[in-house]
Design a protein that fits this description.
Layout (H helix, E strand, L loop, with lengths): L21 E2 L13 E2 L4 E8 L5 E11 L2 E9 L15 E3 L9 E3 L3
Antiparallel strand pairs: 1-2, 3-4, 4-5, 6-7
Length: 110
């Protein structure tokens, strides 16, 4: 593991050129690392880290190719990257995430 403080930059080199080009990271105190993501595709993705006390951190990961270098830029996100809005006039819906251990959540109209 290579620690990286806020606002720091660090060059990175693959020790094995034939290994998959996947990266994952975790914040200090996290119970698990982020989902692995490839650096071979440019674009933006969102990942999370969950801490031992149940806190959740959301991050936006931007991958850019500039000249011959790939840049991975990790930014904090204040909120989850997904949102469910129930815009119906008088219907309550129930939703869940497949594979998630918690109960079904209710989404009421406002």
């Amino acid at each position: 593991m290579i620690p990286l403080s806020p606002k720091d930059r660090s060059p990175f080199h693959w020790s094995d050129k034939d290994s998959p080009k996947l990266v994952k990271f975790f914040v200090e105190g996290a119970t698990r690392a982020s989902a692995p993501f490839t650096i071979t595709d440019c674009g933006s993705i969102s990942v999370t880290n969950v801490t031992m006390d149940g806190g959740t951190y959301f991050f936006r990961v931007n991958k850019r190719l500039i000249l011959n270098s790939t840049f991975i830029i990790i930014e904090d996100m204040e909120r989850a990257p997904y949102k469910i809005d129930n815009l119906s006039s008088d219907v309550t819906i129930k939703y869940y995430q497949k594979g998630w251990e918690s109960d079904i959540q209710e989404c009421e109209t406002n």
